[in-house]
Amino acid sequence: xxxxxxxxxxxxxxxxxxxxxxxxxxxxxxxxxxxxxxxxxxxxxxxxxxxxxxxxxxxxxxxxxxxxxxxxxxxxxxxxxxxxxxxxxxxxxxxxxxxxxxxxxxxxxxxxxxxxxxxxxxxxxxxxxxxxxxxxxxxxxxxxxxxxxxxxxxxxxxxxxxxxxxxxxxxxxxxxxxxxxxxxxxxxxxxxxxxxxxxxxxxxxxxxxxxxxxxxxxxxxxxxxxxxxxxxxxxxxxxxxxxxxxxxxxxxxxxxxxxxxxxxxxxxxxxxxxxxxxxxxxxxxxxxxxxxxxxxxxxxxxxxxxxxxxxxxxxxxxxxxxx
Length: 323
Ligand SMILES: [Zn+2]
What we know:
CATH topology: Rossmann fold
Bound molecules: zinc ion
CATH superfamily: Vaccinia Virus protein VP39
Low-confidence stretches: 262-289, 300-304
Number of strands: 12
Shape: globular
Structural class: alpha/beta
Radius of gyration: 19 Å
Number of domains: 1
CATH class: Alpha Beta
Helix content: 25-40%
Mean pLDDT: 86
Strand content: 15-25%
Distance between the termini: 43 Å
Number of helices: 10
Strand order of the largest sheet: 7-6-5-8-9-12-11
CATH architecture: 3-Layer(aba) Sandwich
């Protein structure tokens, strides 16, 4: 029997059940076993072959597109307005790339000066600013109109396009491709990974940052399956190894790190818990990538990023062109 998960994220989508479709594991096509029922009613299956967790049956591609359209219209426009505050934009430009684990790890694996980087789904653009500071020549693609407009008009980046990765010509060759907060979204994540591989230069790096499902079995109510309910799959360390084999790439960096907000609540005393939970739920309602990034940014101005915890999975693969 799948385990029913309690609501946590205030944003619970209502999906069109008539349009649901069964899907096998999106990474290895194996049949999954039904493990959890998310607060939005979608079932989370586990794949014993590659270790991933995935939604099946899933909403249709058209319904997901509709969800994102509403999501952007309802939330993102006003969010970007707040980011137009010149002080905040100044903070973004001022941040040291080495304060961010993703940027400093990529910089440690590859001398980025003069290298071509592709940021897929750039969000508020902090990753691309870091890459630029490290000397990379950055191209940005994002499907979100507001994100593209913000990146171009506020951050002043001209090499940004409202485009899907599949629309890029195969002849493009990048030294770094960033899929940060991306691979958990599409119904066919393997196609995105395969396209990334095609676009990578020899020795190029594929950087994946996504919620970590490696430790969910230890949780009674896994947090990862109760927030951001638009996510269609969750990776584990095992999935990363399977992906590396499938793409014939080499894992050069793999770790879980960072804390969820829930963990900090659980660690608090009962007295402050109630008040904090209220604030936390309010925060979650606004916890879109931009807000998360902004809060992280502010924290980084006074301290280095938190490397404890295991909430995020960070995997870097190198394109060795193995036979
Ligand atoms: Zn699988």
